[in-house]
Task: inverse folding
């Protein structure tokens, strides 16, 4: 990924609480899966 694309993504990430929430949900699922092991 180029610098411009990465920068644009980071701006979207900072401004979009829904995107952050979706990522956190995904991380929580992974954490829960690993906690079962």
Result:
């Amino acid at each position: 990924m180029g610098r411009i694309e990465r920068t644009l993504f980071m701006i979207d990430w900072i401004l979009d609480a829904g995107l952050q929430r979706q990522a956190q949900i995904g991380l929580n699922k992974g954490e829960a899966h690993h906690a079962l092991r």
Remarks:
- Residues 3-36 form one domain.
- The chain has a mean pLDDT of 91.
- DSSP finds two helices and no strands in the chain.
- The helical segments are 3-15, 17-35.
